[in-house]
Amino acid sequence: MFLKDQWYAVAWDRDIGGKPVGHTICGEKIVFYRKRDRSLVALEDCCPHRLFPLSQGSVHDDRLVCGYHGLTFAEGGQCVHMPSQDTINPNAHIRAYPVVERYRFIWVWIGDAALADPARIPALPWCADPAWAFDGGTYHTACDYRLVIDNLMDLTHETYVHATSIGQKELTEAPFDAKLVGDRAVVSRWTLNVEPPPFWVHNWKSKELVDRWQICEYSVPSVITIDVGVARAGTGAPQGDRSQGISATVINLITPETETSCLYHWGFARNFETDDQGLTARIREAQGGVFMEDIDVFVHQQQNILARPDRKMMSFNIDAGGVLARRLLDRALQNSASKAA
């Protein structure tokens, strides 16, 4: 269910500091903290002495101190202090994880540490480009992470789940194109000559008819970027000229915790009014409200899945993007299992 030898987003850069923070990633409990020079440490969240979570401890002189008996661990996982004895048991060692800070997120490598190449972190240039304003948040979500992937690759749900913000009836009527492009699944939808929904009216500052686009791109294991925007109708946006409109990229990083829970990191990057910090905050609040509506859907789905193990979800035309994404993920999981066998 969990794809190993991958980088997974743990948290926003602002959410990991000098105090230990525990997270479960792909079923593995890991503790994170920053040293005084702001570099990151990721260790197994379990003291080998009495198996107490190290995330319940503290950091002293850049070393992790167990909150039960004071065993102290260096960033490589080796124990460097044991109370009431002069020698250190060499077996008192915990696993260290590769960890990298990039694109405003903290990433941890799950799998063989020898294969951890930071160049394999998904490229998210909008998150670090000063020409774009970017912010967002994280929701702990009580569902299988794949339900989030399904949702984001089928935006027809916006008509019903997000009717007061980004939804509109034309989304259920507009044709869309779902296809594999190399190792990615891409769904493109254009709604032409339509009234903009409330979110875009507010940010485009106009109720003129628009051509609206939504281009969702999935990459293994659980990264989805969505190119969105509106432009004055008939001014060439579908042909590539977006100069008469505004654009944004929605960042979605879904990190599995357990079989029925995940971390949903989301963000909104825009290339308009980028110096307006107030607008950044308002969009973050608005987008957070939109995504909370999705969380409610996921939780109810997961409850029904657990209550009805005899029932299987059905796929229709609108699910084409999610089907392609799952196909890529299943193929990667099968390849990983074959290598491990």
TrEMBL record:
Pfam families: Rieske, VanA_C. InterPro entries: Cholesterol_7-desaturase, Rieske_2Fe-2S, Rieske_2Fe-2S_sf, VanA_C_cat. GO terms for molecular function: 2 iron, 2 sulfur cluster binding; metal ion binding; oxidoreductase activity. Residues 7-108 form the Rieske domain. Keywords: 2Fe-2S, Iron, Iron-sulfur, Metal-binding, Oxidoreductase. It comes from the Bacteria. The keyword Iron applies. This is Rieske (2Fe-2S) protein. It comes from Elstera cyanobacteriorum.
